[in-house]
Design goal:
Elements (H helix, E strand, L loop, with lengths): L1 E4 L4 H13 L4 E6 L2 H13 L2 E4 L39 H12 L4 E4 L2 H5 L13 H14 L6 H14 L10 H16 L5 H12 L4 H9 L2 H4 L12 E6 L2 E6 L6 H6 L4 H10 L5 E5 L5 H9 L4 E5 L3 H14 L4 E4 L2 E2 L4 E6 L8 E2 L12 E7 L1 H4 L8 E4 L5 H6 L2 H7 L2 E6 L1 H6 L5 H10 L2 E5 L7 E4 L2 H13 L5 E7 L1
Parallel strand pairs: 1-2, 1-4, 2-3, 7-8, 7-14, 8-9, 10-13, 14-15
Antiparallel strand pairs: 5-6, 11-12, 11-13, 15-18, 16-17, 16-18
Length: about 500
């Protein structure tokens, strides 16, 4: 019997179940919802393979769909009254609760998801690096169970604090770099039948260093189109929809879309970005949302600037359809949808997007774009062309998975003319994957336009870094060490 906590949904759950079936495991996926939430959402969850479980902790009140298994929810991060006492992970209670509940449920093996929530600092469940305490406590719980004993809550807390004081560090990947190169190279030759390309090899090595298990790397190669000799059939693009509540609005999204998971669980998406953006809007602001996805931020901005205009630019066809429907359903009449891509020149771009996600990205190179339906060609235009006659432009929000440098270079004239605040996702890894040049040169370009930057931290106040490329890159390196994939930057006229 294998029991999991907070398992992922959609295709990830299907892949996990396939793996467990192949290994001959019996398994149960438990979802932590109060009874009223289970009655509301349980049918679809049960269809996905979940069963209901609820074990309240007396010191944590239930707000919306939040369960006691996720203590530490902090209303202050959203500027609301703090209704739920913060129960930090740092005392070991949460792991003890999960593990003990699993054993009492008859599990012989336990998978606990969400290790990033213990090790990295997250916005939704604010924590700090635990110095390996969660790792040591889990080992202690397992050792005690094997010896026929369940640790008490107090014993778990004491073990946790001893681990914290010892300064234990968890090394996610301890492989020698030369052996790592050989390992990845052997997979290219043995599975794909070719030599490793430099960018691909570097990407897999980076994944290993960030904690990806070698077995998962092997599975990644085995599932590659090159290895399978086929591509995803067109039927795989079919999808169902679901409705999510978001700031007194209703969003229609792809069922199980992982991009919407924060909204699905918490009614928010990247609130550190949302809060910074809304603080810059006035009732008559003119905003451009590049990479509007299904429209959550565009709709919210439109409501906060009722006398202004929000231009929602979304190139991927599936997303623009959802965007159009969400604008219609919520009656936000000042959102203007522009279903094309933003780049440094007019033409066409090749975009990739899987069937069960809305996270499209501009990609090109050796992909089989003719036979793989996940690739589509979309028209592109420069913002300089699009807004050449604009009288006003106050804010640009841009999140397009590494294509930001080209999109903003194509907006140089309007940026110089209107001096908008720019809120931008920044990930050197994404920029390189999108073949959009040197990330440091992109920063120098923005700073050359007379801008300074702030890092929008997930669990702290925005931090000014002025016009320092080195400071931004240092923050990015720190984020990578915490397994955070990107920075969110706010550029303001200096």
């Amino acid at each position: 019997m294998l029991l999991t906590f907070s398992p992922p949904g959609g295709e990830y759950l299907e892949r996990l179940n396939d793996m467990l079936d192949n290994e001959g495991f019996e398994y149960v996926h438990q979802v932590y919802y109060p009874q009223e939430s289970w009655e509301e959402h349980g049918a679809s969850l049960a269809h996905a393979g979940y069963v209901h479980f609820w074990q309240p902790q007396p010191e944590v009140a239930v707000i919306k769909r939040f369960s006691s298994i996720i203590p530490g929810y902090n209303d202050r991060l959203y500027g609301r009254e703090t209704k739920v006492p913060i129960v930090p992970r740092s005392d070991g209670k949460l792991l003890h609760n999960q593990f003990t509940s699993a054993i009492e449920g008859g599990a012989q093996h336990v998978i606990i998801y969400g290790w990033n929530e213990y090790i990295e600092a997250t916005q939704i469940e604010p924590t700090k690096d635990d110095g390996g305490a969660a790792y040591e406590l889990t080992k202690g719980l397992i050792a005690a169970q094997r010896a026929g004993k369940l640790l008490s809550e107090q014993e778990a807390i004491e073990l946790w604090h001893r681990a914290r004081l010892s300064g234990t560090q968890v090394n996610l990947w301890e492989g020698d770099m030369m052996k790592t190169h050989a390992f990845v190279g052997a997979l290219y030759e043995g599975v794909l039948g070719r030599q490793a390309d430099p960018a691909g090899r570097a990407g897999w090595i980076a994944n290993l260093k960030k904690g990806m298990a070698p077995a998962d790397v092997v599975r990644g190669f085995l599932s590659a189109r090159e290895a399978k000799g086929s591509v995803e059939p067109a039927a795989a693009r079919a999808f169902e929809t679901e409705e999510l509540s978001y700031h007194d609005m209703t969003l229609v999204v792809k069922a199980g879309d992982p991009v919407q998971e924060e909204i699905r669980r918490f009614g928010e998406h990247e609130p550190w970005v949302t809060n910074a953006l809304l603080a810059k809007l006035t009732p008559d602001s003119v905003m451009v949302d590049i990479g509007a996805n299904v429209g959550s931020l565009s709709l919210l901005a439109g409501k906060h600037a009722p006398e202004g205009i929000v231009y929602a630019i979304e190139a991927f066809p599936d997303n623009s359809k959802f965007l159009q429907e969400n604008v219609r359903r919520n009656g936000v009449s000042n959102v203007r949808i522009i279903p094309i891509g933003a780049s440094d020149q007019p033409g066409f771009m090749t975009m990739f997007c899987g069937a069960n996600t809305s996270n499209g990205a501009v990609r090109g190179g050796d992909e089989d774009v003719l036979r793989d339906p996940r690739f589509v060609n979309v028209p592109s235009i420069t913002l300089d062309q699009l807004f050449s006659d604009a009288e006003r432009l106050d804010l640009i929000k841009i999140d397009i998975e590494g294509h930001e440098p080209k999109a903003l270079r194509g907006a140089e004239k309007v940026i110089r003319k209107h001096r908008p605040v720019i809120i931008c996702e920044f990930s050197p890894a994404y920029i390189e994957a999108a073949q959009c040049g040197d990330p440091s040169e992109f920063l120098r370009f923005i700073f050359s336009l007379g801008y300074s930057a702030k890092v929008l931290h997930r669990t702290a106040e925005p931090e000014s870094v002025g016009g320092s490329v080195e400071a931004v890159m240092a923050h990015y390196q720190q984020a990578m060490e915490s397994r955070i994939t990107h920075l969110d930057l706010m550029f303001e006229p200096a």
